[in-house]
Amino acid sequence: MEEKVGELWHRIITRMANTRYPDAAVHLEEIELRIGILFRALGGDGGLEVSAAPATRHGARRGLLARVAGSNKRVELAWRDQRSLRLPATIDYFPHRQLNHYLYTWLAALAVGDHQEEEAWIAKNQRLTVKTLHDYPGITSRYQQLVEAHLAERMPADRLPPSEAAQETAIRQALLKPGSIDRLPSANRPPQPVPLWLHPFPPITAPGSADTPDQEGGRGHGETKEIDDQQRHTAERAKKPDKEDQGLITIRMENIFTWGEFMNLDRGSEENDDLDSAADALKDMDSLSVSRDAKASAGKLRFDLDLPSEANDDRVLGEGILLPEWDFKKQKLVPEQCRILPMMAADARSMELPERLRRTAKKLRAQFQHLTPARIWHRGQQDGCEIDLDAYLRFASDRAAGHTSTSDGLYRDLRVGARDLACLLLADLSLSTDTWVNDHSRVIDVIRDSLFLFAESLSATGDQFAMYGFSSRKRDPVRVHQLKNFDEHYCGTVRGRIDAIKPGYYTRMGAAIRHSSNILREQPAGRRLLLILTDGKPNDLDKYEGRYGIEDTRQAIHEARQQGLQPFCVTIDARANDYLPYLFGSGSYVVIHKPSQLPRELPLLYAKLTA
C-alpha cells in the first residue's frame, strides 16, 4: 500500500511541477533535414551535421513544486562546435506547436554567426541576435513572438532574491532590446536558462564513438533495448569493483561509486532486468564508466560510447609511407603529417567461399558475365585465325585489273574487347563497425560479406581490381590492410584475408584516400574508380574529429579527381546526408538504408557505375 501511495504521489506532483507542453512538442527528427538545409542556405558551415543536444544541469532556482518533485534540473540548449550544430531533441517550451517550430529555425539562424570566440554569454548572444535580425529581417516578427511567449514562461523578478532579480531584469532587457546590456550582474546562483540563446557553457564531447562488443560474456538471449536519445555518452573503461568493496561501512568513502562513475552494464543472467529503469538511469548520467565480467546478461542496452579502441596487430609490410594532410585553418597541405602502415593478415588461410554466400555469388557471377566485353572481329590483319574474304576479293580484283596492290591485311582475327577499367575498393575497418546491425550480424560481418561478393562478381568480368581496408590511431599509424592488390588473382588466399578482417581504432579517411589514390593512379586503365565503403564520418582521437577531418577528407577527394580518378562513396550511415554532399558532391555517393542489403547491392552498384 505504501508503495502504491508513493507512486501515485510521485505521478501527481511530477505532473503538477511540469512546465512543458508535450501536446505541442516538435521533435528534431521531424525537421532535421529542413533545419540542415536552412542552416547551410543562410551561410552556415557546410561541414557540420545537425545532431541532438544532451540535457545539462542549469543550477538555477526552481519553483517549490519542482523542488518537491525533484524535476526540472536539466535543460536542452543549443550550441555549435567544430563537428555539429547541436539542437534540442524536443522543443515543447510553448503551448503552441508553431512557436516551438519557430524556435528551431531561430536557433539555426542564430548559430550561423557563431564563430566560437571567447566571449561573455550575455554579450555574445546579444551580438548574435543583433546580427541575425540585421542579416535576415524577415525573421524579426518570429523573434518578437518567441520573446513575448518566453517572458511569459519565465519566473518573475519579484519572486526572486535581489541579486537574482537583477540578473533576471538584465536578461529580460537583453531579450527585448538586444545590445542594451553590457554585462550580467553577479549572483549566488546561475540565471534561469534562456532557450532562445546558445548554451553558456556547452559540454565538450570526447572524440571517437565506439561500441563495446560482448566477448567474455557472450551476447545473451534476453531482450535488447535501443537507446534512441541520439546522444553520445562520455565514458571510460573501469575495473569492475569487487563485491566485498561495495559496502558503505567497511570501505573508505572515496571508493564509493556513484551513478555518474559506475554502472554495471553486464548484469547477471539470472536477474530480472528492468530495461526501462536502466535506460532512465542512463539518461540521468553525465558520464559513466564501464567494466566487463564473465556473465552473459539477460537484457542489454545499446547506446554510443566514447571509448578507446582495442585491436590486435597484423603483419607489417614496411617501415611506413609519409603523406601530407590538409590544415583547413592554414589552407595548405602539411607535408609528412601522416604515416601509412601497410599491413596484411598474419593468420589468414586459404579458404573457399562461405556456404551461405554461394547461391548469391552464383547469381551475381551470371549477371556480371554479361558485362564481359563481346568478342569482335579485327579486320585488315597481317595474320589471324582466318582469311578476310572481303579483303582478298578486293586484292584479287585489283590484280586482275592490272593495279599494283600489296598482300598485307588479308586476314581477320577474333579477339575479346577490353573495358579499360580499374577499380580500388577501400573499406572502413574502424571500431565503429563492431556495432550490431541486427540480432545475427555486425557491421563488420556485413562488410566482410560485401567484399566476398564484390570480388566474386568482378572476377567474372575480368576487370582489374584491388581491395584494401583501413583504420587509424591518430596520424601515426594509419593502418592500411592489403586484401588484394592489382597484380594478384582472386583466389583462396585473398578470401582468407577477407575473412580475417576485424574492427579496430578510428577513421582517418583523408590519409587512406590519398594512399589509395597513389596506388590507383599507377594503373594504365582509361577509367579508374575509387570506391569507398564506410559506416560513418571521418574521426580520430586527435583534432581530426569534427571540422578538421571533414575538410581533410574533402581535400583528399578533390586531389583524387585532379589525378583523373573517380571517387564514389557507399555508406550505411543513416546520418550521411548531413555531410556526404559536402564531401563528395550530390551525385558521388549512395546511402544503403538497410545494411543487411549491402552485400547484394554493392556489386550491382558497381555494375551501374561502370556500365
TrEMBL record:
Biased composition (Basic and acidic residues): 216-246
Location of region: Disordered: 179-247
Ranges annotated as biased composition (Pro residues): 188-205
Signal peptide interval: none
Superkingdom of source: Bacteria
SMART domains linked: VWA
InterPro entries assigned: NorD/CobT (IPR051928), VWF_A (IPR002035), vWFA_dom_sf (IPR036465)
Gene3D superfamilies reported in the protein's UniProt record: von Willebrand factor, type A domain
Domain (VWFA) ranges: 420-609
Name the record gives this protein: Nitric oxide reductase
Source species: Sedimenticola thiotaurini
